[in-house]
Write a structure and sequence with these properties.
2 domains; 8-stranded mixed sheet; Aspartate Aminotransferase, domain 1; 39% helix; 4-stranded antiparallel sheet; globular; binds pyridoxal-5'-phosphate; 15 strands; alpha/beta; Aspartate Aminotransferase, domain 2; 13 helices; 377 residues
Length: 377
């Protein structure tokens, strides 16, 4: 008998989601607007402490609308963290702009500020001032956001903060998702809270979030008929899904606590074996530990990342290699890249462990036992 599958990160409902969905049905607001959308936006704004938030159909849509408002057009350049999910960078291609990919640094596994400044200076010297920088808090781990902000300020380049994986993370007591000129959240099925699919764009500027709503609603001008002077998109969040989001907001802090406890559990049992954990880099950093991720040194453990991954799969435990950096992806390999192999090596040797907020201690112990068995045999 194989034991039950342990998933990498599965949805975890709190219980009140269905009440909010029921409200939508009983008021017949089965639409991409309504009380749940308004309520969810308010809850998010209060949580990350950013005054304006628009709920959208996905995090990818949020990044797309941020780029459009920063007037990124064909031929423009946008700098992005290479070590990420394609949702960060694909919207640059939607705009037919050129992604300029920047490597990570070993402390946080996120964008290296030194490589960023090098890239900015080199692009400017080639006559191409980047129109935006997109930085990511990968797996919830805060990037060196203060350093990156000051580089962006110095060269007057707007900053998009991709906090899709980092809702609930903090930097110096300030919430992830509150640092960018635009900040992006995602509520896809595997994220720390989910609406099944969804995202949000946040900003301190009311006009930007008003425009976000306008563009996300097919850019419909004020008229009794349908009048369009601008290219718009159908990117709003459904009032049903926003109901799930309102329920999930009530359990978000609990999810963060559980994921941090998972991380502590693994850390206490695997560090001495030689596993290196993605770790908070400075005093005020607090990761939501959306996914606990380890770096595997085969010379110390006697096993490669792939051997460990496959051994766990044999025990019905799902793990996953880290994100394959964009500069290594067939779709992106032609684009400029600044770095020296940090994210290449993380991709080669890194593994995400089961991290759901609904994992039992027994499941966590099963993961640890399977890892120990693999590396000690
Ligand atoms: C999930 C994710 C996105 C995109 O969000 P979707 O809601 O899936 O479109 C963007 N960036 C990162 C880093 C993500 O993990």
């Amino acid at each position: 008998m194989t034991e039950e599958r342990i998933w990498l990160s599965s949805p975890h409902m709190g219980g009140e989601e269905l009440d909010f969905i029921h409200d939508a049905f009983s008021t017949n607001w089965i639409a991409p607007l309504g009380a749940n959308v308004d309520g969810f936006e308010k809850d998010l704004a209060a949580y990350i402490k950013v005054p304006y938030v628009a709920a959208l159909s996905s995090g990818t849509a949020a990044i797309h609308l941020a780029l459009i408002q920063l007037s990124v057009k064909a031929g423009d350049e946008v700098i992005a963290q290479s070590f990420t999910f394609c949702g960060t960078t694909n919207p640059i291609l939607y705009q037919q702009a050129t992604p300029v990919l920047v490597d990570s640094e070993p402390d946080t596994w996120n964008m290296c500020p030194i490589a960023l400044e090098k890239a900015v200076l080199d692009r400017i010297s080639k006559g191409k001032r980047p129109k935006a920088v997109i930085v990511v808090h990968l797996y919830g781990m805060p990037c060196k956001i203060k350093e990156i902000q000051s580089i962006c300020n110095k060269y007057e380049i707007p900053l998009i903060e991709d906090a899709a994986e980092a809702l609930g993370s903090e930097i110096g007591g300030q919430m992830a998702g509150s640092f960018g000129d635009f900040s992006v959240l995602s509520f896809n099925g595997n994220k720390i809270i989910t609406t099944s699919g969804g995202g949000a764009l946040a900003s301190k500027r009311k006009d930007w979030i008003d425009t976000t709503r306008f563009l996300a609603t097919q850019a419909r001008d004020d008229a009794p008929h349908y009048e369009h002077a601008t290219l718009g998109y159908n990117y709003r969040m459904s009032n049903i899904l926003a109901g799930i989001g309102r329920g999930q907001m009530k359990v978000l802090d609990g999810h963060v606590a559980n994921r941090r406890a998972n991380n502590a559990f693994y850390r206490a049992r695997l560090t001495d074996l030689g596993f290196i954990f993605q770790s908070e880099n400075s005093e005020g950093d607090r990761s939501n530990y959306w996914l606990t991720s380890v770096f595997i040194q085969p010379e110390i453990l006697g096993k490669t990342r792939e051997e460990i991954r496959l051994a766990l799969w044999e025990s019905n435990i799902e793990t996953r290699p880290l994100w394959k950096p964009m500069h290594l992806q067939p779709l992106y390999k032609e684009f400029p890249y600044y770095g020296n192999g940090v994210s290449d090596e993380l991709f080669d040797k890194g593994l995400c462990l089961p991290s759901g907020s609904n994992l039992s201690e027994r499941s966590l112990q099963r993961v640890v036992d399977a890892i120990v068995k693999c590396v000690t045999k």
